[in-house]
Amino acid sequence: MYTTTIDLVPHDEPTAPTDGRRDRDARSDRDDRRDREAARRDGRPLPDDDIRARVQQVGVRQQRFERHLARALDVDAAGLEAMDHLISHGQSTPTELARRLEISTAAMTLVLNRLESAGHVTRERHPSDGRKLVVTAAERSSDRAYDLVLPLIEGIEDVVADMDDSERATVQAFLDRLIGIYDDAMD
Fold this sequence. Notes:
Blueprint: H1 20-42, H2 51-73, H3 77-89, H4 94-101, H5 105-117, E1 121-125, E2 133-137, H6 139-161, H7 165-185
Antiparallel strand pairs: 1-2
């Protein structure tokens, strides 16, 4: 999985200054923007009012966590995504997994070969259609993945439990709008 850093701060170029004060203001705005961008990249504390940077940092940390999880399980990004689907939704056919990961069935065969060789999945004949295979996550691998993800799940649940109803409603509305923006960007 590749880390992409998307700058969520608009880059409105200031209009040509007509006096020294506007020039100083424009320089100050550029310096402020550069400071915020640098803080997002290198982990320095972010200004209190920089919500966009915090949203970006959640995405960056999600990507880091996925890479950490993939390293701990000794799988690649596609293997991790396949395992996530199998653990979350149960057994699946290779074709269904390929559709889910948006890769070809030939590529899925390679992913499953690697996962099976590492002991993460098993492939067996479909019980009612012997022409098909069914892929199942190995219990040991599922347990290991769950152990690695559990602290994150519990931490998020603790944060949510500490919110009052008003805070939850505000955060939920914000996240729903954010999800909509992502969905719209992919249409």
